[in-house]
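quick one, two chains, predict together pls
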Amino acid sequence: MIRFVESVGEKAIDAVSSIFEALKFTALCLLHMVQPKSYNSAMRMVLTKQIYFTAVGIIPLFIMMAFLFGSVIIGVVIVLATQYNLQSEIGSIIVTFVIDEFSPFFTALLISLRSGTAINTEIAVMNVNKELNTLKEYKIDLIDYLFLPRIISGIISVTSLSILFAIIMLTSGYIFTLFYMNMDLHTYKNLLIAAIEVKDLLVLLLKSIAFGFVAMLIPIYSGLKTANAYTAIPISVLNGMVKLFIAIFFIEVFSLLLQSI
Amino acid sequence: MISYDTPLISNLNMLENISLIKEVHELLSTEKAQEQASEYLAKIGLSHIGLNRLNQCSAIEVFYVMLIRAFMTKEMNVIIVTPFFLIKNLRDIEAVFENINILNKHKTITVLDNITNESHYRGKMCHIIK
């Protein structure tokens, strides 16, 4: 019985200390983000490269996916709205669905799958190869040089790609309404303008920032915690991705809760 | 410190590995720091490896880049740990010492090595301290 209590206590202490450590790491990253001295030329160079790899490299695939998914999903939404006699609400349904929910969530998933895994592996490999040790030895701040550019690029990439995704999705929605409902561009445009609110844009922006932040922070932290063996790298990526998906779903649910208040 | 525990950064080329120190500690622009790094590489005839990555360089080239990187710091003491382990096919340490002299005039260089490698250092331009 005592052993059981001891093991439960040990696990609880481990869980609490790892949560505390993760929160401390998050706070440190946020603190460095607001310090001007973090932004030296080496950091800016890494930031530029990261934005290129995360946001620019994905654009052709992203546009194609946004157009395909956009037209199909908006099509389904419009068909369902018509079936339930909600034609008058189509504008607000499309705006809420596309801008508030689908664009940031889908972009975050895509960036997590593409860049989150890459960053988790990169940091884990650097850790195992003792390259992080080199940076420490030469007094190069890991947060400033390695982590901050990746986190900022994540925020910039998810936010800008979410906006792009929403624009493409709404455009492809017009193509569907044109063929399915014979709606002209002027009516469609007015429908969206009448439905869109500042709140929708704020939700898109805040959610994208939160998604971008966790999509980079969690893989970085997971890579940093990799044990000193090459066999530990896939385990680190696996754990990092599971935690990242939980965090993304948590943010999604939390934002839905906040919007429902 | 130049040792097995302080390797080069694999996602940077040789110039970037060297210039990183000046960019971070002296806040030099990337262009100026890389210019200085190129000058150092040219001094020992390695300017052609500037844009190479780690896997495109030989062990001795990687060693010299690690050495130049160490010279970029403000530390006056540079420690080289087991050079015969870092450069697997190194036969004569004298050539390394000659290049160190070309690259550096002010810093104190200390080589830490195993007693089994003592014969490699006998009669060379260095003091052996046990």
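Strands of chain B lie at 77-81, 108-112.
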